[in-house]
Design goal:
The protein is of the alpha/beta class. It has two domains: 18-113, K Homology domain, type 1 (Ribosomal Protein S8, Chain: A, domain 1, 2-Layer Sandwich), CATH 3.30.1370.10; 118-315, Rossmann fold. 42% of the residues lie in helices and 16% in strands. It has twelve helices and eleven strands. A hairpin with a 5-residue loop joins β4 (117-118) and β5. α1 (28-35) packs across α3, α2 (40-49) packs parallel to α4 (91-103) and α6 (130-141) packs across α7. The protein is globular. Residues 335-349 have a biased composition (Low complexity). Belongs to the PhoH family.
Length: 349
Amino acid sequence: MRNPATLEVPAARAETTPTSAKVDVRDNETTQALCGNQNENLKLMERRLGVRVGQRGTELLLSGPADAVAFAVRLVENLEEMIRAGRPVYREDVEQAIKVLGRGTESLQEVMLGTVLKSSGNRQIAPKSIAQKRYVDAIRAHDIVFGVGPAGTGKTYLAMAMAVAFLQERKVKRIILARPAVEAGEKLGFLPGDLAEKVNPYLRPLYDALHDMMAVERAQHLVEQGVVEVAPLAFMRGRTLNDAFVILDEAQNTTVEQMKMFLTRLGYNSKAVITGDVTQVDLPTGKLSGLNHARSVLRNIEGIHFSEFSDVDVVRHPLVQEVIRAYERSEAAQKEAPAAAPPAEGTES
């Protein structure tokens, strides 16, 4: 059965009469890449699109409601073109391809063939959604880019990939990764050790992403040389960052003063990417998020770009998208619910 939360087939055609179609991929190697390990890509298509997919040699046999079969044929043809262009297709790529084609504005080739970086495992890192493609293009075109949206949309990961690519291409001389050291809704208490050991838990996600881009030994060597710096936001004060690609992660947890301080560090031949999720602010109650404030005051400045992501762009486990939507519905319902009436005078509350 179809999952309406993840399938976005255009609604213009409502034809559901059963039909069938055949797609000949023409060679065994491409067919195997398209089907995936143990046919996992075909099984995913069946679950998401509500069609049956059979294989006979290099032919794929599709059957089901007419609109779903037509969409499946288009999906298979687009994935085949990607494979022939040298882009591996994994299960998560099929998941994102359905979203891209379901929105009907761009082809997979326009969105997912623009490789940003080849990771240490020789895996291509490339956009997987329309919003990600526009985000990457914005980073190339602008010196300050904000990536704002829910968790799992690839904001920090793609920014990190762009930073490593810029370093490899000698467009910058160093990478600086920063985060505000704010506890995420729980008090951790006293942390033993020196300063580096105290702030390391806050910076761990940035190290994880960096190690996914390059070999751990190479990354460690660059850190030791100062070519790659991972530091809490407070370390940015008083500095001028020239010839650098600077990433500020979890920017929703900056104060207005911290955001202003960070943005005014940018020097010549540098880029800054600021990422955050405005629904996950961990600042004390009453403190205005620097990211929210920046969205309102910097919107119309030339050279600054805001890339907005939504739950549609989530590239983690499909259930992450459902979790985000469930919380959004709950928060919207709470805002719409009338405030409880105060107890009448003379009565006990």
